[in-house]
Amino acid sequence: KIAAGERYARRRKLVRWTLGAAAAVLLAVCAGTAWHFLSTPDIYRVYENTGDAVTTVTLDDGTHVWLNAGTKLIYPKQFNRSMRQVYLSGEMFADVRRDEDRPFIVSADRLEVKVLGTQFNLKSYQEDAKSEVSLVRGKVSVGIKASKMNGKLTLAPGDILRFNKTNNHIDFLNFDPDSYANWIDNNNFFFVEQTLGDIVADLRRHFAVEIVVTDKSLCDETYYASFVNEESLDEILDALNKDRLFSVRREAEVYYISPPLK
Predict the structure, then answer these.
(1) What average pLDDT does range 220-225 have in this prediction?
(2) How far apart (Å, rounded) are the C-alpha atoms in residues 146 and 117?
(3) Mind giving me the DSSP string for 115-163?
């Protein structure tokens, strides 16, 4: 059955840092890097999932990567002897083949995730205000580019690092890895202390529909929810609205989320 739609009355304890950023410099660097990849097709592959279904890629080292809708992955046809580096825009789940001599590195906008062998989820869409790393198994270190923070943060299984690109905050949260509802299986959704605004962004991509929140104050409501039975969009919105904090109406292919009707 559905285990979903529960809104916490009190938030879990969050650990937060404030970071400094040099966004303009980073954008210039990223643009130059992407151009380099696209101009050397004999060395790099560019895989883009433009549909709404999950796709998989097996890399040169045997690492398996699942790509969510609207995701682009740039990776070399063959990794070199010192490291295995890929570049992401979107969301991926990776089951990394362990290689102690060659760390596996994912660069995604301002995040850089480094692992040896592990299972983790990384979400970093350019249009979203937040990027997120969730560790299911193993250990990863996460660095924030263009920041004043020294060193990297190390995650253990069950840790979530959520970086807000707008205000440069990092939140640490926790989940049970054994109950992790992975989106790569049966269209699952797993929201840990996610705001309605962030959830709506995920639902838009997955269901390929327009969802409009008419009152921006609703976007800050926070939810902890999982959906594991291939629920429809209507079922998910109804479960999230268990406390009747908003109303939903549909006009043609557009969903409108508004304050509750009186």
Answers:
(1) 94
(2) 26
(3) ESS-EEEEEE-TTSSEEEEEEEES-EEEEETTSS--S-EEE-TTEEEEE
* 89-92 contact pairs (CB < 8 A, 24+): 89/124, 89/125, 89/126, 90/49, 90/123, 90/124, 90/125, 91/67, 91/121, 91/122, 91/123, 91/124, 91/125, 91/183, 92/65, 92/66, 92/67, 92/68, 92/121, 92/122
Instruction: Pick the closest to residue 189 from 206, 209, 172 (CA basis).
Output: 206
- How many Å apart are CA 115 and CA 138, to the nearest integer? 8
For 176, phi and psi rounded to 5 degrees? -90, 110
Q: Give the model confidence (pLDDT) of 119-171 as tens digits.
A: 999 999 999 999 999 999 999 999 987 555 555 899 999 999 999 988 888 99
Q: How far is CA 75 from the centre of its chain?
A: 19
**Backbone φ and ψ of 25, nearest 5°:** -65, -40
* Full-model pTM: 0.80
Cα distance between residue 44 and residue 86, in whole Å = 10
User: What local confidence, expressed as pLDDT, does residue 25 receive?
Assistant: 29
Spacing of C-alpha 63 from chain mean position: 19
Joined together, the tokens standing for residue 222 give 């926070």
Helix residue ranges, H only, the chain: 23-38, 196-207, 233-240
